[in-house]
Design a protein that fits this description.
The protein is mainly α. Helices cover 60% and strands 0% of the residues. The chain is rod-shaped, with a radius of gyration of 26 Å.
Length: 57
């Protein structure tokens, strides 16, 4: 392994990425939430149109 001089250490850059595991996980969870909300809303509209709503009494 070769030694790195102190002058070249200042030029090394890395780790600038903002897309990390937790960020990707949060985006996926938001997409799942929106998808599930759309599914539930569509299912509710369909049940109302078909008259298959459970009575509240």
């Amino acid at each position: 392994m070769r030694e790195i001089k102190e002058e070249t250490l200042e030029e090394i850059k890395g780790g600038d990425s903002y897309v990390t595991g937790p960020v990707i996980n949060a985006i996926v969870n938001i997409i799942k939430l929106v998808r599930d909300a759309g599914y539930d809303l569509g299912s509710g509209f369909r049940r109302m149109a078909e008259g298959e709503i459970c009575p509240l009494e």
